[in-house]
Write a structure and sequence with these properties.
Chain lengths: 346, 312, 347
């Protein structure tokens, strides 16, 4: 990444949901630049708003949710101003495609997978002949690592295993030739062995079709391999963002510390694992100060009073924590995180 | 573990589903022993039969062949009423999905004390006391007893599930992927809790998972299962240090490492069953080393043995 | 309310900014005392299933109005005979001066607005009279009472038997074969034939009708419950109950039925109008209640025969309006209640 070209830029985005009269602020003033050709991982626990945030990119927010503030600049247009489905149709699939956690939700069980890919190709290119589209579709199938694509072209989703279905979903997404591919926990429902394979496929596809990938997960371990940059989300806000190496080897926010040190891979039989106490804050109420403060053993008094701004650690690395303020006392990273560096493949 | 006392002994277990025409053998001729006080791990991908073994011990699934012995007594098939009652109390299960395993229409109080009421008459006061105690034990507040499950987060719900098992004062707990449905940030809480309870109460665990990464922390011995057959069994550190079966190696290589540098240099191994040539030379359960067993035919075993010796 | 909240929050904000300004940096950046247990607390919502159901039902204004309407109608059917100046529904009214029956007298209101055909009537028949001079007002309310009782009785009995049978059918695997055969037999004989046969064989009356409808109706309810039970019986929470040795009876009462409340309620609400409709049908083919027990079916059937003459159409309109109100109300109330009873709609 020498020349950084911004492909999508979110500025102070706020998303609110109306749940039977109660207002839930799911995203709280998030700003994020996504660069062309990178893989950006958004990591956070469930309820942190990572899915909601990316859903704003292609207008897939639930009916009761609105972007109440901020802008989303893509191709010089502000997506946050899009109201009609017709406007979104230009974006969805064509420009920004999405892969969901459960592959069956995005596949039509009554159509052969080949036809589903052909359909995706035809949305992009209406005049293409069936045989041409079929050839192209078979190409995509073999790209995502499906063996005997000619034979499997005619098969239906139920004839595929979970991992294979997810590959098909990737093939369909790629057939639309999107610029950005959002992967919403694409491997969470899969076995580890399959998960590793899907990650490899995603990496290959990114290179081959020069995609920009936004990868959503709750598991930091998964993204070490695929991500160029990592954004850590907590309670509807990106609290730390940096390159993958920076996040793993030089994390600054106590929440990132906690996430990293609670990884079971670090555990040794006989010793306790590090845990994060408590629960994420209630997003129905307004959050004062640092949202993580009540669970943070290193919390300062100011954390409860004032929301921290971004402090820059390096050109690519910034974090929202008062600990980075020059006036703050020195707090050392937990030792467990140091062990990450020594962690090798057996 | 100086003297190993066998608590659960599984002999040539076979569990099958479906009718004669569409018979599917989920667990095929599996034998292993679980020692008192240890954590025995079973790892395998979905559909490998790992959950089925646990459920066969729980007597949710009936067995087609083989025996399950608990403390030397046969507990599968038809058993006497008194043994049934005893087993119901002594063997407990923790389920995978905390969202699905709690009765949404009952209060925590009822959910936790459900088993207690089945053991015999109990006064309301005593029941409440036991519930309070069980909730405290899993790190929940006693006032949670009067609430409904939907008010809790995944990690808290899983701990309610653990309290439900604990209140029975069991000896043996089957934990069926107790953390795979949880956020990574919460997994550690539940694992620590299980570990602490084992130390305090001398529990024995059968820990089922699809992911080897947590196994190193929680288990003493691990059995790797593939398509209903155990392919390798060894003590945890031994298995991590000297994995021999190609499937075990594939599983190990798939563990996501929270270290980008290591990840980039990692080679992913893929296991393909067709690499074995079992048509003429049938595989057997072989002893590679003390307490390290592997499924191999004669030819493979020779190769494994050689690789194993040279690696030590 | 919003203004108050705003006031409070701005007050809080001022409080915060005061603190930030007055507190020296050293203190601002000192450690806050940390209590790990504090994080475990969750907001106490004081949730109760039935209260939430009621609350969310109350939000559906149409349904609430219709409940009042149906309850009002039911109450009125009991109050009506006690009011002054009411006629016996079965009494044939004669003109005292001539001794001739008051035949097909139009509703009272019509006689007021200058209908001069019947100048000498001294009595008030609110809804007019029928062809033999019985008071339609009294007959309609008595008929509504009878029909509603039939409907509610049939729905309750069907539900009671159907739920018990259905749960056993779905939950106890050994009984599946038995109930399936019973179902096959009962379901293959058209309900109409059974209704007709029983009405022929037994003495006509309300009890006979209820019996005839329930004897076939319960199996449909049972099958419905069975399918629902099959869907949830092997969910993990039920396995968990079995694992701690909970007896089947308690699993059914605590784990299965509470989940089915909303669908059972909908089903029951729909079987009330269905039973009333059946009664109309039986009466229509001439096998229903005897004429001295009025019912909506009877009134509609009587009215139907006069439908072609415009001046007598009122005899059809009044009972039809009542049956429409009852049917639509039960349908909407049932749906609203089943939505309200679904905890997904609580929060």
């Amino acid at each position: 990444m020498n020349k950084k070209e911004i492909i999508l830029s979110a500025k102070d985005v706020e998303v609110k949901f109306d749940l039977r009269g109660q207002i839930l602020t799911a995203i709280r003033d998030v700003s994020l630049d996504i660069y062309h050709g990178e893989t950006l991982a958004i990591v956070g626990e469930s309820g942190s708003g990572k899915s909601v945030f990316t859903k704003t990119f292609n207008g897939l927010l639930d009916k009761n949710g609105t972007i109440s503030k901020g802008e989303l600049i893509y191709n010089g247009e502000d997506l946050a101003k899009y109201k009609k489905d017709r406007q979104w149709l230009k974006i969805r699939g064509h420009e920004i495609a999405m892969i969901m956690q459960e592959p069956m939700t995005s596949l039509n069980p009554l159509k052969s997978i080949g036809d589903q890919i052909v359909e995706a190709i035809r949305i992009r290119d209406r005049k293409i002949s069936y045989s041409k589209a079929k050839n192209e579709a078979i190409g995509y199938l073999s790209d995502v690592g499906i063996r005997n694509p000619e034979d499997r072209f005619k098969q239906y989703p139920h004839e595929f295993s979970g991992g294979m279905r997810q590959r098909v979903v990737i093939a369909i997404a790629i057939a639309c030739k999107p610029k950005i591919l959002i992967c919403d926990e694409p491997t969470t429902a899969l076995d580890v062995t399959i998960q590793a394979q899907i990650l490899t496929v995603l990496k290959e596809m990114k290179e081959k079709y020069s995609l920009t990938i936004v990868f959503i997960t709750h598991d930091l371990g998964v993204v070490a391999n695929v991500a160029d940059r990592i954004a850590v989300m907590y309670a509807g806000d990106i609290i730390e963002i940096g390159t993958t190496d920076e996040i793993f080897f030089d994390p600054r926010h106590p929440y990132t510390w906690a996430l990293l040190s609670s990884m079971p891979q670090l555990g040794i039989k006989g010793n306790d694992l590090f845990t994060i106490q408590g629960n994420p804050p209630n997003l129905f109420t307004e959050i004062k100060g640092d949202a993580f403060a009540p669970r943070n053993p290193h919390a300062l008094k100011i954390d409860f009073l004032k929301r921290p701004p971004y402090f820059e650690v390096s050109e690519t690395h910034k974090a929202k924590t008062w600990l980075l303020d020059p006036r703050a006392p020195r707090v050392d990273k937990p030792k467990g995180i140091m062990a990450l560096q020594d962690l090798t493949a057996n | 573990m100086k003297e190993k006392e066998v608590l659960v002994d599984i002999k040539n277990l076979e569990v099958a589903f479906g009718t004669r025409k569409h018979r599917f053998v989920a667990v095929n001729d599996v034998s292993f022993q679980i020692y008192k006080g240890e954590t025995f791990g079973v790892v395998g991908e979905s559909g490998s039969g790992k959950t089925t073994i646990g459920r066969a011990i729980m007597r949710i699934h009936s067995t087609a062949k083989g025996d399950i012995l608990y403390n030397g007594e046969k507990i599968n098939g038809k058993i006497s009423k008194s043994l049934d009652k005893q087993i119901t109390q002594k063997i407990q299960m923790i389920f995978q999905d905390p969202m699905a395993s709690l009765n949404e229409r009952a209060k925590v109080n009822y959910i936790v004390s459900e088993g207690l009421m089945n053991l015999g008459k109990i006064t309301e006061k005593e029941r409440n006391e036991r519930v309070t105690e069980a909730l405290k034990e899993v790190g929940l507040l006693p006032e949670f007893a009067s609430r409904f499950p939907h008010e809790f987060s995944g990690g808290q719900r899983q701990r309610i599930g653990i309290a439900r098992a604990l209140i029975m004062e069991p000896e043996f707990i089957i934990a069926d992927e107790p953390i795979s449905a949880l956020d990574v940030s919460i997994r550690a809480q539940v694992l620590n809790l299980l570990d602490r309870l084992q130390k305090e109460k001398g529990l024995t665990y059968l820990f089922v998972a699809h992911d080897l990464s947590v196994m190193r922390f929680i288990t003493d011995r691990i059995a790797v299962i593939h398509e209903g057959v155990i392919v390798e069994l060894a003590e945890t550190e031994e298995l991590f240090a000297h994995p021999m079966h190609p499937y075990t190696k594939a599983l190990l290589s798939a563990i996501p490492l929270p270290n980008p540098i290591a990840e980039r240099n990692k080679t992913l191994l893929v296991y393909d069953k067709s690499m074995h040539h079992y048509e003429t030379d049938k595989p057997q359960w072989c002893t590679l080393h003390e307490d390290h067993y592997i499924m191999a035919n004669k030819e493979e075993f020779a190769a494994y043995k050689e690789a194993y010796e040279s690696n030590r | 309310m919003a203004a108050l909240r705003h006031k409070l929050s701005s007050k809080f904000e001022r409080h915060v900014s005061d603190q930030i300004e007055t507190m020296p940096d050293e203190e601002l950046f000192s450690f806050h005392t940390y209590n790990a247990d504090e994080g475990e607390k969750t907001a106490y919502s004081n949730y109760s299933y039935w209260r939430s159901t009621l609350n969310s039902f109350k939000k559906n204004k149409t349904a609430v109005i219709l409940v009042c309407l149906v309850v009002g109608i039911l109450l009125f059917t009991f109050i009506q005979p006690l009011l002054p100046n009411q006629y016996d529904p079965n009494l044939v009214n004669n003109d005292p001066s001539t001794g001739i029956q008051y035949r097909n007298i139009p509703p009272y209101i019509l006689t007021l607005v200058g209908n001069t055909d019947y100048p000498e009537i001294k009595e008030t028949f609110w809804f007019g009279t029928n062809s033999i001079g019985q008071d339609l007002w009294a007959r309609i309310w008595t008929g509504t009472r009878n029909s509603l009782l039939i409907g509610i009785a049939v729905a309750s009995i069907e539900a009671l038997i159907g739920i018990i049978a259905g749960v056993l059918w779905g939950y106890v695997r050994k009984l599946d074969w038995f109930f399936t055969e019973v179902y096959n037999i009962l379901d293959n004989v058209p309900q109409t034939i059974i209704l007709v046969l029983i009405s022929y064989m037994l003495k006509p009356g309300i009890k006979t009708l209820i019996f005839a409808m329930c004897i076939t109706g319960w199996i449909q309810m049972a099958r419905f419950i069975r399918n629902q039970v099959l869907m949830i019986r092997d969910r993990e929470y039920n396995l968990a109950s079995r694992c701690v040795g909970t007896p089947t009876r308690r699993v059914i009462a605590k784990n299965l039925l509470p989940y089915l409340v909303s669908v059972i309620m909908l089903r029951m609400a729909l079987s009330v109008p269905a039973a009333i409709g059946n009664e109309v049908f039986i009466t229509y083919i001439g096998l229903g209640l005897p004429t001295n027990i009025p019912s909506l079916g009877q009134l509609i059937n009587d009215g139907r025969q006069l439908m072609m003459s415009a001046s007598l159409r009122y005899q059809l309109i009044f009972p039809t309006v009542v049956i429409s109100i009852v049917t639509i109300s039960f349908y909407i109330i049932g749906n609203a209640f089943s939505d309200a009873a679904d905890p997904k709609n609580h929060i």
